[in-house]
Each structure stands twice: as structure tokens, then as C-alpha cells.
Request: fold
Amino acid sequence: MALMVGARVLARNLLRPWSRLPDAVPGRTGPAAGGGDGVRCFGSPRLLVETDPAKGVAVIKLKNPPVNSLSLEVLTEFVISLEKLENDKTFRGVILTSDCPGIFSAGLDLTEMCGKSQAHYAEYWRAVQELWLRLYLSNLVLIAAINGVSPAGGCLISLTCDYRVLADNPKYTMGLNETLLGIVAPSWFKDTLVNTVGHRVAERAMQLGLLFAPAEALRVGMVDQVVPEDQVHSAALSAMAQWLAVPDHARQLTKNLMRKATADRLVKQRDADVQYFLQFISRDSIQKSLRVYLDKLRQKKG
Reply:
């Protein structure tokens, strides 16, 4: 309950324009990583947003070390930051990337799904749904600058973007590998991957829990471009220029035309999807699998 109350307080704070949270850097101007003069930053302990009004582009950096797991707080901060950028007509595009070396995002926070109450599981899953819908249907141009490993939910975030640039490092694999953890990805995860790489590639990848190295991810269409690691951000900016050259209204309507049917399937069954998640995640066998996996992670850290 304390965690849920904390998330709601966090959301209220983030809704205040350029709000300050612990370790946040609101109102900073001047040169910033990947930006030029006049870059303005805001954010929170787990998310940094660098905005460049002159270019109409913002950079959202996940900074939830060690692996940028998508906790309830991160999901909340992500949604609120997107909402702020969408409501500010100065911005037309967003680059999503990571502030943690070698990690884009390890995906959903398994600690949020293990040993908690039913109410917590429901709140967490609704937050996951909300982030996916916000990203998938955003009127902003979203480009993923994938500068690290990106499994499961991390891969899902990148798949919601309009364009994906991946660093050419064989360690930086990506894919929906939920089955290897004994978890079944929901239908809207599947739909997102099918819409990107096609049914057969998605079917094989999801059943086997495959993680694709950069060259293979490019070959199957999971990413649009693979570049040297030090060129990921510049390549994302170049791609952004191409997308922003298209009139917003035409691009946005076309994006909606392509994606609305997929999003509507979740919108129409959000409550049922939450109930299915609750039934699944509460099974003794699933909770046991999660505990075993989390124990292994703790032993590695130790």
C-alpha cells in the first residue's frame, strides 16, 4: 500500500510544471549530453528528460540502475513525462535511450510481480498497459536509440517507437524472451512484435524466447538501423530529421490508421487483461519460478 500511495504522490508532483524531485535537474540550461546550447532538463531520480526547444526534440533517458527495470515509479514517471511533452506543442519528436552503460532496459520489474498483494499487481499491470498505449499511439515521433541490452519489456518499449537504431555490439541483444522465465507475454506484446517482424518470425521468437544480436535484429526487421556504438545518438537525430520533414497532421493520421486497431484490442479489454494477469501471476508455480529467478540474481550480485 505504501508503494501505491508513493506512486500517486509522485504522479501529482510530476504534473507540476518542471517539478523538482530528489536528484532532479529541472531548469538546467546550457550544453547537455547529446544536445546543444539551450537544452533544458527536467526529470526525477529514475528518468531524465533533456529538451531542445529550438529543434523541437526531447531525449528521454532511463536512469534506474543497475538495469533500468520498469518499476511502478518508473512507469509512472515515464507516462507523466510523455504527457508533458505531448501537451507542449514546442516538441514534435522524442528520442528514447538509456543513461545506464550497456543497458537499454531489462524490462518489467519482477520484484513488482512477486510476493505482493493482488491490489499491487493490478496497479502495476495497469501502469504497464498505460505506458504501452501512450507510447504506441503517441502523436510525437518516437525513435529508440538502443544503447544496450534490451530484453522483454525493454524490447517492447523499443518496438512501440516509429524507428529503432541499435548499437553494433554483439552483447546488445533484444527480444521478447518471457517464456524463458516461465512467463507468457500478453496478446498486445505479441501484436506489437507481429506488426514489426511478421507472424512467423514473431511466433518462433516468442515461443523460444529468442534474443537477437544486432545483425540478426536488423535482418528480421526488429530494428531499422545498426550503427557503431558511438554513433547511436547522431543516427537517431538524423532519422528524426527525416521523420519531422513530413507534415505532422498527415504523419499522425497515418500512424493512427496503422496502429489504432491494435491498440483498440487492448482498450476494449483492459479490465479483462488485468484479471488474466492477476490469475496468472498469482499461481503458485509462477510465484515459485519468479522467486527462484530473483534468488539467482541476488546470488550473482552477492
Summary: Residues 1-37 have pLDDT under 50 and may be disordered. The two ends are 29 Å apart (CA to CA).
